[in-house]
Amino acid sequence: MAILAFVLIAHEPAEVVGASIDMLLAADGACLVAVHYDRNSPEADFAALKRRYGAQARVLLVEDRARCGWGQFGLVDGTVRALGLLAASGKDYTHAYLVSCSCWPIRPLAELRQFLDRNGAVDFIESHDERWMTGGLRQERYTLRHPFSFARRRGLFEASVRLQRLLGLRRTIPAGLTPRYGSQWWCLRRETVSGVLRWVAENPAAYRFYRQVWIPDETFFQTVVHALGGTLAPGYIPTLYTFNLHGKPIVFYDDHLAWLQQQPHFFARKIAPSAKSCRAALAARAGLPGPTDRPVLAIPAARTRMPPRAETVPFYGRMFEPGSGIRNWPKNLETLRQPSAVLYGPPPLTRLAAGILRASGGLTVLGRIFHAERAEFQPGQSRFHGLDAGDTTLRDYDRALFLSRILSRATGLPVFELCPGDDPVLEKLVFENETTFVAVPLLPGGRSPAWRFLFWYLALPEPQRAAIDAAGHRFDRLRRTEETAARHFGQKHVAAMERKLFAPANRAGLVFAETGVPPDPDWTTSLRFLHGGRAEPLLGAFEALAEALSRQDWRRLAPSLAEETEGVAARHG
Question: Where does this protein chiefly localize (predicted)?
Fold first, then answer.
């Protein structure tokens, strides 16, 4: 019977990685799990993994870790280090199966072992010529040098490519290798793994060559295994992966469960962390002693592709729906069913509210994702599940896609801060799409239109507030606040947001005033109806939030407006 050694490449928080490890160990009582944990991830998380699995004989943790990133050599090198650790351990296994924390079994692992026994002479890895690629660089992945990260330093990446083309620079592909391409995910026989490690040891210069190949995880193993010979499964690997027309991976959610269980694969890539019901059902199925339906023993003829939308299962891919239109907030939000709460207001208020909700537990509370200078994730974190806080170029290339990736990777109900000017289109949509967003507007002072001056004053950058403070007369300060906000945020945007926040007809929903008004009962009932149990941690935190906000004197944040706002509010009753 086949013995599986899962090679798990991971960068997520320790509890997420631990959930994947525990699922594999529980589903297969004989398997091994060799883990390479991205060196870019926090040391504290790696230390937590070592404490948790240091005494577990079936779990191997790579100590000498590589730094990983999309399209970079670290993904290859980290995998090779994990394979080397497996070999050095002397533990018994017949197949190495590469997975990540978003890969989840969709059939019993006992059936996978039967499948591998039936096809014991076959390596399951895609190894195609350049026609496998749908766009972008082809031969130049190899023949040019790629020292810069496409994801994090795209400008330098593209400038380097242009310069090398201009100068006619070309690299020579190492002797004995014919470039081959395919999915990063594979299942290899132990004999093949030994051959790959032997090739790495005997060809150090050729291995270094791959350090500056673009997206080497889609070509290194595919090329080396091809060079080693052996039998490869034509057009099939045991891991189901799918992409949309824009080359973005399709993410699976709870309502994909029935479709996933019908597929002739053993794992599926990109099961959303929020798809808890789907993950739980698949984990239970993975541990069954044998197939519960017709087993997959013959190698399928071709890789599974997603059915068209017209078929019975709706909403494939959510934000990644083919044809949804990238960089298009309204169109993409139509297919996003992952709810999130949005703290909307001036930065001092959103920061305060985020801190209170973060302490309540049960929520994934983020900062200002669309801050002009950096994406703010959680305090002290510069990365969030593979996304880099400083990479605003990648974020702003497709903001809807960036947000969808964050929401799909949150373990609890996502909550994020949104301040005036962060994204004017999204700011309006937050209050119009109640199935997607739980809008939590934070208004200093109260709902009366008189307090709008204080709202915009606190939303302005510090230098502009200082200029307002310098005005001598109190009415000049109010006038300057209004004019500066219209100039900084745009007059039409200010008017549109004031209609949503302060107009009497649009006061439905939750608005925290100076006294810490608790949520409206009708609004709470509606929230439970729309989002079910996912909303409970947020509702449970409202009382603490209202109490904390009631103790704040918002006028201390704007002493130069305190007298004016009091007087104007009094005149408005």
Answer: endoplasmic reticulum
49-70 residue pLDDT tens? 999 999 999 999 999 999 998 8
Question: Which DSSP string corresponds to 442-454?
Answer: B-SS-SSGGGHHH
Residue 446 to residue 81: CA distance in whole angstroms: 59
Pairing of strands 387-388, 437-441: unpaired
* pTM (2 d.p.): 0.62
C-alpha distances out from residue 445 to 99, 387, 521, 566, Å? 52, 36, 22, 9
DSSP state for residue 505 in the 8-state scheme:
G
Tens digits of residue pLDDT in 497-525: 988 888 765 444 444 433 445 556 666 77
CA distance 457 to 502: 15
Instruction: Compute how many other C-beta atoms are within 10 angstroms of the C-beta atom of residue 174.
Output: 16
Phi and psi of 564, rounded to 5°? -65, -45
Q: Count Cβ neighbours within 10 Å for each residue of 365-374 and write b for 16 or more, e otherwise.
A: bbbbbbbeeb
Residue among 422, 414, 358 at smallest CA distance from 395? 422
Residue 352 is classified by DSSP as H
Beta strands at 387-388 and 239-240: parallel, antiparallel or unpaired: unpaired
Percentage of the residues of the chain whose pLDDT score is greater than 70? 84
- At 58, the amino acid letter reads R
Phi, psi dihedral angles at 59 (to 5 degrees): -115, 125
Is pLDDT above 90 for 398?
no
User: In whole angstroms, what is the distance from residue 3 CA to residue 496 CA?
Assistant: 62
Give the per-residue SS3 of 507-538.
CCCCCECCCCCCCCHHHHHHHHHHHHHHHHHH
**Cβ count within 10 A of residue 312:** 7
Q: How many CB atoms lie within 10 A of CB 121?
A: 8
DSSP state of 249: B
The whole-angstrom separation of Cα 408 and Cα 414 is: 9
Consecutive H or E run containing 114: helix 109-118
CA 363 vs. chain centroid, Å, equals 16
Distance CA 474, CA 468 (A): 10
% of the chain at pLDDT higher than 90: 40
| 400, pLDDT greater than 90 | no
Residue-wise burial string across 544-566, b where 16 or more C-beta atoms lie within 10 A, e elsewhere: ebbebbeebebbebbebbbebbe
Neighbours of 306 (CB within 10 A): 19
Out of 93-107, 254-268, 310-324, 355-369, the most confident range is 93-107
CB 516 within 8 A of CB 549: yes
CB contact set of 167 (below 8 Å; sequence gap of 6+) = none
> In 3-state terms, the chain is what percent helix, strand and coil (to 5)?
45, 15, 40
pLDDT of residue 291: 62
Distance, CA of 75 to chain centre: 17
What average pLDDT is seen over the chain?
Answer: 83
- Structural domains of the chain, with CATH: 4-286 (3.90.550), 329-571 (no CATH)
Q: Quick one: which H or E segment has residue 225? A: helix 220-228
